[in-house]
Amino acid sequence: MEKFLKNNLDKLEILKIDEEVSAKYEVAKILRKHPEKIVILNNVTGYDIPVISGICNTREKIAMSLGCKVNEITHKIMEATENPKKVNNYYDLKGYTSEKADLSKIPILTHYKRDGGAYITAGVIFARDPETKVQNASIHRMLVLGKDKLTVRIVPRNLYTYFKKAEKLGMDLDISIAIGMDPSTLLSSTTSIPIDHDEMEVANAFKNGNLRLLNCEENDLKVPEADIIFEGKILSGERAKEGPFVDLTDTYDIVRDEPVISLSKMHLKDDAMYHAILPAGNEHKLLQGLPQEPRIFNAVKNTVPTVKNVVLTEGGCCWLHAAISIEKQTEGDGKNVIMAALAAHPSLKHAVVVDGDIDIFNPQDLEYAIATRVKGDDDIIIIPKARGSTLDPIALPDGTTTKVGVDATKILKKEEKFERVSFSE
Fold first, then answer.
1. Of residues 148, 182, 247, 407, which has the active-site annotation?
2. Across the strands, what pairs with 151?
């Protein structure tokens, strides 16, 4: 993270706050006022470690970290996930102060008044499959239970699978937690890849083979350079209440019984900062949503090969709304793209398909396409009682909802009627 900040100081808008603020509510309130800035809070009451937030809260920052343009992010993710690079650079932990794990020394934020407590929101958990020994990295929210205890929300994906295998074998699952990583490495931990693949090989592809991994001291896990590293275990057979927590849609998720983490050791860089992701903020939305865009792109490409780009929009929480740009070849293309997109990302609720002259990263351009190229009875598809997202507050508890597709493409052979004069003269 430090290297990213130093290398891009001239391009980044960084707000430094030296006034004393509390980790309980006050920091989160400040972060809400600056949704697209990097904010560093140097004086958090009771802590020596500053809080940093916003390193991934715009597509521009993520593109900067990936070394590409904003409209190339989806293709960059696809390239890295399809062509991962084996990591060869391993180092021992140096430049860190190591001690017994003590969460009371870290300025972990309580964000909202109904929260279940203080939450780690930018922690990436590293673990190995107990059988295959393949390593996985994934970001999870973690509720503080005590100085060395957390409860973690895990859903049925890789880490969940590893943990259930460990429980079946009657053993705890060794883990490490890294907080404060380079944006591209953090992004790699959210990508959708097969369970027998390692996200750090995706990160290494992002870094053109130059990723450095550190050997942990109490387990065999390899983690990237980060400001704060914890070592510990997810305990077999132990559960604790997790929640409430504000999720992507800026609404509260429910309380559940979730696994418990016991921490043994922590390693702090001398100039460590604690990275906090604001729940329901842009950073939260982009990190969760961006890796789903390649999935939609590939599904659409199988249906309409002339797809140009896909975006899960920030206004749709980077989860519920997609805009898809295509080069239309037949009148049915728009409808086929809608069906492919809705199937590819089951949480998707509304999909809009547009022509290549519409900038899908510009909400006004999308609205223009809907305003000038949509005839409701011909161009809107409504699919009731479909599986959607449990995060959607209007859906049924199991996620059942109504999905809508909008074909906002020009009518073929009448393109001149839709020519945008101010763009062509």
1. 247
2. 143, 260
